[in-house]
Every structure is written in structure tokens, then in C-alpha cells.
Amino acid sequence: MTEATPRYRVEDGTTLIEMTLSSVAQFFNSFDPAPFYEKEIDGDAEEYILNSVMDVPAETPMKIVIYLPPAAATEENAMMMEKAIRAHFSYLVHNSERQTRERFRQGRLNLAIGLLFLSACLSAHQFLIRYDGNAFVPMLGESLIIIGWVALWEPVQFFLYGWHPARRMRRIYRKVIGMPVEVRPDTVRDKIPSSPTP
After folding, report:
1. Are 169 and 46 in contact (CB under 8 A)?
2. What is the pTM of this model?
3. Burial of residue 189 (number of CB atoms within 10 Å: 0-12, 13-18, 19+)
4. Average pLDDT of the chain?
5. In Å, what is the CA distance from 135 to each residue of 78, 103, 123, 129, 148?
6. What is the distance between the alpha carbons of residues 1 and 112, in angstroms, rounded to a whole number?
7. H helices then E strands: how many in the chain?
8. Among the four 45, 75, 122, 185, which has the fewest Cβ within 10 Å?
9. Does the pLDDT at position 197 exceed 70?
10. Could you tell me whether strands 10-11 and 14-20 are parallel, antiparallel, or unpaired per DSSP bridges?
């Protein structure tokens, strides 16, 4: 869909995320019936922007530069595409926050269930201790303790580590939202070597 240099160029200390399009419509999801400025941007464009941001240190200033045919490289299209990028990544932030809230809610429920199950397993273990004359009983008691702790693994794993990737992605989305967006005629790019976006 897009073309981009294999290495990111830098202008005045700002790293450029460069894309070359044959039309404005190419930047958007063709299956989205909303007006252009409300449309989802194309999945390839979203992925390329996100990968570009993740390729460089978080504090690096960046700018999105879109090359269009001269007739399409207008101020009106530039404003529209900038607005669409802001709206698209703002939606991703909102959606990620909603999903994280839901996962925390589900995590709390799973943790409560896990603790109740662990308590039941520990109680059963204490009950089985009375029958230590049977060689099978100690093994069963220890198995119940292990099963009880395993039941807690998923909610504990989420509260300790599981929510961090989503928070990191929201930082990236917000960085994209704050980036300047510039549209240039693709004739400006003729001197820049380009290769198909992976």
C-alpha cells in the first residue's frame, strides 16, 4: 500500500515517518462507510506508523509525512488526514482503556474465585491429614494444594504483569496523536530512495 525509506530520515532533529500514496482514499479503510475524516485508517498504514514509533527511543520527536500526487497534496487534504489520524488513534486509546478496565474487573472476579478455591483445597488438605495411615492420602493432599495455587496463577499473572503491554501501547497511541502531520507532493520525494513497506 505504501512506500517508505528503509531507514528513517531526520529533518531539523525530527524523525520522519514517511508514506507515499497514490490517492487520499488509499490511506483509509475502504470498508468503513463513515466520512473520510471519521474513517478508520488502513490497517497497513496503522501498522507502519506504530512499528516506526516502536523502532526509535520513546523520547525521539517524530512527524508523519505523507506524499501524495501533486493535485491531491492540498491543505484541505492535509487537515483531513491529520484529523483522521487523531481520531483513529484516540479511538484506539479509548478502546484500550475500556478493555483494560474490563480485564481488571474480570481479574478481580477470577482472583476472588481462585482464593475461595484455594481455601477449599487447603481445608480439604487439613481434613485428609487425619487419614495419614493411607499412603495415597498425603499425595492427594499435596495435589490439592498445588491445584489451589495453580488456580490463582492467571489473575495474579495479570495483576503483576498482564496490564503493562496495554499501557505501553497507549503511550505509543498518544505519541502518534501528538505528532505533526504534513502532506507533501510526491514530486518532492523523487530524489529519495524508497522501497515497499514490509
Report:
1. no
2. 0.73
3. middle
4. 82
5. 77, 43, 19, 11, 21
6. 48
7. 5, 6
8. 75
9. no
10. antiparallel
